[in-house]
Amino acid sequence: MAASPPVRATRPGRVPRVTARNALFQQWQALLTNRTKRQRTGEFLIHGVRPITLAVEHGWPLRTLLYPAGQRLSEWARRLIDDSGVPLAEVAPELLHELGERESDAPELIAVGALLPDDLDRLRPGPGFLGVAFDRPGNPGNIGTLVRSADAFGAAGLIVTGHAADVYDPKSVRASTGSLFSLPVVRRPSPEDVLDWVGAQRDRGLPIRIVGTDESGSTPISGCDLTVPTLLVVGNETAGMSARWREMCDEVVRIPMGGAASSLNAASAGTLVLYEAARQRDFPATDR
């Protein structure tokens, strides 16, 4: 199959060309490592075919699509450029390679996404509500992994609380493999915000139970009813749940373990409890 010709701009107006490390390039580069810049600009970078595709499919607001100057693009990249309506920027391949953080060739596309509001009502609670709160995670990769698991096992969303790694860190976005764009993920500064929200849902007639996870929990996960509206709490990788989260929990469950391991990785533990909730709820009703 013959390669396509180099892409041509299809948007009205002038497409910016970035061939040097100018202010615009430095702004994009800062989004890779500088959390403060991500918050200040309200932007982050999205890498990879699947994450970019899912961002477009789920209507995630994209500010810019970066593509390599003078290079032939795949049918996927050309179609996305033509159909998405996202503003374009043409970037020198060696600069795009730096933004892609890859050892091989420059990526075909990098998307600049917009940060969404941290509104708990994005979780849209209902009678079958299943949510996850991740308390002060220190590893962005664990956030992305738990987002992916929550998406796979039918959760309505994930809440990151306290002083935590950034949901929009490239490691988190990459680890989610695109689930960040299909599952609501909200950041809140403290457990109190979440407790207020849970209280409001209870006042509306939705009896959400808060179920914590800890190796010293009183109930094995198989003995906990996870078919009712539930908010699962996963603690920090080292310290576990904060004292306030423990106070808020209606029940704390444990994952029975053998061998020499003293505990599980936080994202792994969260995934196992999510799987148990999905099993009890018969979700999905049929395998994909």
Automatic annotation (TrEMBL):
Residues 22-111 form the SpoU L30e-like N-terminal domain. GO terms for biological process: methylation; RNA processing. Residues 132-275 form the tRNA/rRNA methyltransferase SpoU type domain. GO terms for molecular function: RNA binding; RNA methyltransferase activity. Keywords: Methyltransferase, Transferase. This is RNA methyltransferase, TrmH family. It comes from Streptosporangium canum. The lineage of its organism: Bacteria, Bacillati, Actinomycetota, Actinomycetes, Streptosporangiales.
